[in-house]
Protein 1
Amino acid sequence: MRLKCRAIQFLGLWIGLSAALPEVFSASELIPGPTPQYLSSEALQKSLTQLERRRIRSYNQGILVETLDGQKVLADHNSEEVFNPASVMKLATSFFALSRLGPEQRFQTEVYGDSALDGKAKALPGNLYLVSDGDPSLRSSDALSLGRTLMRRGLRRVDGDLVIVGPFSLYSDRYPVRNSGDLLRRSLSRVGIRVKGKVRTVSVQELDLSAKVLFMRRESDRLRDILWLQNAHSINEIADQLGDILGGPEALEQFLIENAKIAPDEIHVDRPSGLQFNKMTPRAAVKLLRALNAWLEAHEMKMQDIMPLAGIDEGTLFGRFRDPQIYGAVLGKTGTNPVKDGGVSALAGMAFTRDNGPVFYAIFNSHGSITAYRRWQDHFLKELIEENGGPGDSFLLHGGLSPINVASYWVPSEYWSSLDEETYKQPTRKKAKPSQRKYTKSHPSGSRRVGN
């Protein structure tokens, strides 16, 4: 009788707890999923042994390869340890930007003046304003293009200031840009437009654009195309600008915790580009890839829409994975930092296997030679794919080579069409008389090289 009473009390307690649990836990948190099946990988063991023979310690390497559903683990080594992911962090920034802005987002940049131009003096009496909503794809060449377009319209001098409104940034392939406003001023000067005032920054709220004259506007390409460019060529400036306009490293880190279900101790974001001291476990990287892939599929996109195809697409992976046996079977994002953690090389993405279908992989190497690690990554991943039946499929058969267009132009506003064409007509140059000198071909027909 006493046992029966205890059973009734226990049952009542369980019913009471069950009623309260949904307020705190979801069903998926209460019921653990199936335990993943860990497969033995000879490719992994041989590759790690190869490193140890070169006195490269295996504890400085982190690797995880899983099937898309996470139910099979093809390779696992130090997957719970944190490493520096370097530019693999750009995949996290890509996910963040897509989720917050949408893949079809286009950024707007506009140029205003305080007043119309003084046609006779070829001058702007007041300030010149550049208003930006954060376009991360603006380059130093775009600043020169803006200057040339304004100059062709008759502008030679700005009597006021150059005023930057909003999160404006420029980047260059040749040198670091410390101050985008100063670079814009130098670009204008380079093409013949002198700014007499200073460069200053104001917020959008401080400016009444309705009282200004719109001169030029530029619309960026789609965000999805900008992200492909960022990830293919690993452009730090694009990633950092995107991260900044979306809230910075802390906001990105919180987004990953909430949306990729990454534990706080698995991730640390110092820079959205992956520069400096970022931290991530290989398991966190695979969680990120899985969440990103699910988001892309839900929005009718593929991973190759924002990541390069190794050995085929231009960028940091163009010269890798070109073996005919795995050609077109590897998507990836590289990560390189030669000055942190003794030399960092990372690679993460998707690959095809015949036996287990598409898989997610994350490979983090540190404290070693970048060049040697890249060769090791290529060899290990090739051997792992072969170990699982070969590729069996190709991203090329799944819309792999999407057309990417990342070229936008400055468009003159209607203001210019309202002006008297004669006011800003450019002087015509006399045509030179054709030379009577005869030339001989220095190259046989068809022998001149174009490109390399």
Note: Confidence is low (pLDDT under 50) at residues 1-32, 437-452.
Protein 2
Amino acid sequence: MKRLMTIFAILILGGVASMALGYPKICIDPGHGGSDPGAVSYCTEKVHNLDCSLKYRDWMNLDTSDGGGGYAWAVIMTRSTDIYVSLDGRTTYANNNGADRFNCIHANAGGGYGSEMFCYTSGSGTSFTMRNQMQAELIAHGGRYNRGNKTANFYVLVYTNMPATLSENAFVDNAGDAACLNSASWRNNVALGFLHAIQTHYGYSPYTPSSHVTLIVDNANGGFSASANWWTGSSSTDKYGADYRCRSTEAISDPATFTTSMPSSGTWTVYAWWPQGANRPPNIGYVVYYSGGSQSVYVNQQANGGKWNTLGSWSMNSGSNNVKLSCWTTTGYTVIADAVKWYK
């Protein structure tokens, strides 16, 4: 699914703009804040809640920008700084912004130890499922004692219009738990666990995104251009996406062009995808443009179809870059323009 996103979706590194693209909208609610510190003992609850929530947001945004797996998300937060937000303000914000899911993040107190997860006592089956998934990953990534899946009538669970959870990550008044709450790496691991949980919740395999950037231009999206001599085909089963473009080979300059916008300069690896066939050219050239000029790379489209084939790596500047697929070779073949990928 994610591999078929347009280049414009893949370029959204910050995640905010993805709200317009119809991705699941997740509202993250860091408990307490501002004049309300929450529980205070070996650590201050509001500090942990906010930092863990920000890390959860960052993992979700990184998942959106990483084209290798996972999914894409629209992330909103009831607070992203140390301010006070009322309980009604939190639920109203989530409801008015049309959030699809609500994840409230807390730490616990009262003489216990371990991690637990809540949903509304009279909540939907979806809420119960998400609660169980969030708790499973909280235990897997946080490693504290499993206090289980629970229900409660907490305000933010009762008055949100969407499936909602509230996590109690660990106890601020237990020395062992608090050592974890005070650890930035532990909070980051827990936040990654929440990402894995929401990925699972939406039917995707748990995936840890990286800061690598993948840009894909398929023949069907706005980064592709070709003359009317290139017709659309779809019969080959090893195509990328729904279709591809075809042209008869001849000694003429009439390339198909794949254009992307690089978010940053650096060394980028370029790949091409084509469906193979006996009528394809055995020696056709892709022209890759880079900071030092251009280079032709010749491939055999009669083989290696249905996968990404490496054309090479080049230093490229930020901004517009393109790859052109020539039709200039011996006549009697059909050259295929399907998809091109840049990876950094």
Note: The chain has two domains: 2-201, 214-343.
Protein 3
Amino acid sequence: MASLQRLVTKWLNHPFLPVVEALAVASIWGSSFVGVKYVLSYEDPLLVGGLRYFIGFILTLPFMIRKALGRTCKMPGLKSHEWRQLSAMGLFQYTLGNAALFYALKTISSTSGSLAISLVPIPVLIISTLFLHEPARRMQLVGVVAAIGGSLLFFLPGMNNQEPLAFVALAITVFSFSVFPVFSRKFARERRLDTMTLTSIPLGIGGGAMLILGFIADGLPSMPLHAWGVVLGLGTVNTFIAYLLYNHAMRHLTAVQVNVMLNLSPVGTAFIAWGTLGETINPLQMFAMFMIISGAILVQKRPD
């Protein structure tokens, strides 16, 4: 038993684990656009997002209650400014960012929506440099440019004849999504909060606010059973599990590193759409995928 515990501890502390976690998150979130697009045919964006994220929050509660009762993790009490930062994480990421994204997905393709995720490293890089003092090194900047350039090359051809207001919503999404990784990295670097707390509180605040707004705007949900199954999957795998992996990876990787790795997520979306909807990938898009993957590799480069 002791040897098994040492093996698990060694594996959890392996330096490559955060990269694997970030890649897993990119793969999981690659399916989110397809799932959300499907459920949006039955319900409005606020209600879909609120249900997804509040389900994720509910799944964290048994762990939070167990931790509180058993005191399995001795963490200091949250200060008022930390509550404000956690609230900002939840409101920007879930309530504002995803509400804007889900609204955009009502009128644009999943391909165009994926572009928002690809552009997030730009504000993350700026904010991380200014507030976290984590400037990107030269090769990492090359990786960021390559990943973003590849994303633009891959997704811009699918953006013709789209509704302009939807792209205003996508701009809001890009800015809103840049807040969460910066604060998540700040908390992870300080190690004042464990991964479950860092996942649970923003989900409860942001997801709860989004669900209340959804009830006010749209009333009670009236989806068929199979759509509820998709929502449950989004809340369990794409939210609860994915954000736990994401926040744990933030303990070892910078905000820029993780978010450039997530540029692989839209590529996953394209592959899922190709497999389920029969959409094809042309040679130019294949080259763009190579640029994105190369950028994700370069951004992981550490000093010798």
Note: The chain is about 80% helix and 0% strand.
